[in-house]
C-alpha cells in the first residue's frame, strides 16, 4: 500500500512580503519565503556599486600587513573589497578579521577566510565592541572596510581606546531611481502584508521612493526590522503599529520572525 506523503508545511501561506534588500542579497530570502507559501515582492531600495575611485582600496592592499585588525562592516564590504585585495595578494596571516554580523562571516567563508572576531548574538557595532579583544587595542592599527558613509560610533570608540583607525571605502550605496507606481498598485490590491527593511537608510529610501498614497499605505503596513535602533525612526515616521523585530539580518532570523508574526 502506497503511503500518503506528509503535507508540506507552509507557515507563510498567503503572506505577501515586500523585500527591500539590494538585488544581489534578496534572492535567497525571496526563494525561502516562496517555499514557505508566501509571496516575496522584490523592490530594492539600495543599489551597491564599486567606489568611484579604487586608489584608497588599492593603497590599503599594499600596506595590509601593517594593520593588526581589519573590520568588515557588512557582507557588501567583504564582497567588494576582497576581490580587489586577492587580485594583488593573499590575506596576511597576522591580520585578524572582525565582522559585525553572521552574513558577513558567511561571505568571508566564500573567499576561504574565517572571522576571528564576531558577535554571537546581537549583530551591530555595540556588540562587536563588547568583545574582550576590542577592549585591548591601545597602540594597534585597525582598518575598517565600509561603504561611502555610515555611523562613526565604531571608529570613535576604538580611537578612544587608543587604536589608530583608518576607513577604506569598499563600495558605494545609493537610492535607485525607479517608478513605484506598480508597487503602489500591488499595495492597493492587498498583495503586501508586511515590509522587510534592514536599516534606517533603507526605510528612508523606501519612503522617498513612494508617492503620497504609497507612504500612507506603508505607514499602515507591519514593518519587520533587524535592529532596535530603528524603533525611534519608525515612530517618528508615523507608523500605525510597532515594528516586528528579527534577532538579526540573517535569512534564518528574518524568516523566524515572519513565521512567528504570521501565527
From TrEMBL:
GO terms for biological process: uroporphyrinogen III biosynthetic process. SUPFAM superfamilies: HemD-like (SSF69618). Keywords: Lyase, Porphyrin biosynthesis. Belongs to the uroporphyrinogen-III synthase family. InterPro entries: 4pyrrol_syn_uPrphyn_synt_sf (IPR036108), 4pyrrol_synth_uPrphyn_synth (IPR003754), UROS/Hem4 (IPR039793). Residues 29-233 form the Tetrapyrrole biosynthesis uroporphyrinogen III synthase domain. It catalyses: hydroxymethylbilane = uroporphyrinogen III + H2O. The lineage of its organism: unclassified sequences, metagenomes, ecological metagenomes. Gene3D superfamilies: 3.40.50.10090. Its EC number is 4.2.1.75. Pathway: Porphyrin-containing compound metabolism; protoporphyrin-IX biosynthesis; coproporphyrinogen-III from 5-aminolevulinate: step 3/4. PANTHER family: UROPORPHYRINOGEN-III SYNTHASE, CHLOROPLASTIC. This is uroporphyrinogen-III synthase. One of its GO terms (molecular function) is uroporphyrinogen-III synthase activity. CDD domains: HemD. It holds the Pfam family HEM4.
